[in-house]
Amino acid sequence: MLESHIMATRFAHEDAARLAGEVFGEILKREADPGGYAYVLDCLESGSKSLQQIVVEFIASDEFIDGFVALDNLASAANLVFALLLDRPLDGEAQLQSANRELIRVGLRGYAELIVASEEYQTRVGPDRVPTRAGRTPAEANTLSRPQNDV
To answer: Domains in the chain, ordered, with CATH?
Structure first.
């Protein structure tokens, strides 16, 4: 499990607020609701969960699955999660087949955990950034996703 590999960092309020907004914007593609935003903010400020754990939670959530994952198409689901976390598609048929087997073996949460724990993720994204789609900066994602009543 990811929990045993990742040490949670305590973020200052300003950084935690920015990251909380980015998680909603980049993973769920929506503005944060006040309750969810407060939860993520508390986790990041207290260090009770790492940013990587929160990213995996969002990917394994019913909202993400219902809104973005084609349950009848494993290849699509595997490629979606891979591309979301690493900002690139799976490379070729062999990697897609391997990803499909892994997704079946460990489920969506486990598959996301494997990617987040990978050397490529740690190099490309790291422990203190939210994976961001190409063409958008984290600041743009944050602007689109923070709740309107956040100060």
So the answer is: 2-145 (1.10.3130.20)
